[in-house]
């Protein structure tokens, strides 16, 4: 007898216990097999013996037991297009491993936790799961995209996340200029620049916009100067821009005076309107880093003085 039943696919994801019932109509039972707990493995058999008082023996077997206690592992998560415009489709794909029962399903989640009702079913085929995110489904912004997979035993993997950038090439644009005090009283935690003293000004200026909806990359430039640390950054190219009524984010590559090669950077610019403070944050990364996932090499942030940030509505 089993203390539990396998799922519809014939798998347990907890160790079942097999018990044996013994009976003898004449001399009676001298010994009966003890219950046995079945560990992880496929197509397992458990055998039990019974012996009566006369010394006769009998054997019974419970066979075909499949037990998978281990969750699958998502080894890679990728997007076919990123950043993606609002009009484009993009495919999210997950590669995974499962050494026993095998992965049979997957879900992706946009801006929600697993089990929150926002999961979308993905297709599973030969070690890869994929799903199409239809253009227009997501608003412009940087979205947190999570994927998890499930094996035939019902074990779910951990959720693995990736950032999906959705931009609107016909949308708003942003301009800004002025100065901040990196590492000062109104800065974010984590500011780090050469010569950072928490009291010296850093000047910045930028213009970032898409060309009448005709381009997949924005036009514009960014300049940032922190004279106390002789740190001067100049943008080379821009990768994407996303906006909402109060905040713009953009990313690109830049050079830094006196340092070799190029760097990637990201900017978060907040338009506080008439009653709130404008804020500027610059983060700088190695060229091979992902600004949406990796730690920054340099950071400067703070409330804007001597200028402003404006998100221009089209």
Keywords:
314 residues; eight-stranded mixed beta sheet; 0% helix
Q: Would you kindly provide a written description of the structure presented here, covering whatever features stand out?
A:
The protein is mainly beta. The protein contains no helices and 22 strands. The chain has strands at 17-18, 29-32, 36-37, 41-52, 57-67, 73-79, 84-85, 90-97, 103-110, 120-125, 128-133, 141-151, 160-167, 173-180, 202-209, 219-226, 231-243, 247-256, 263-270, 279-286, 298-303, 305-312. The strands form four sheets. It has a nine-stranded antiparallel β-sheet with strand order 21-20-19-18-17-16-15-14-22, with no helix packed on it. An eight-stranded mixed β-sheet has the order 6-8-11-10-9-12-13-7, with no helix packed on it. The protein is elongated, with a radius of gyration of 30 Å. The termini are far apart. The mean pLDDT is 92.
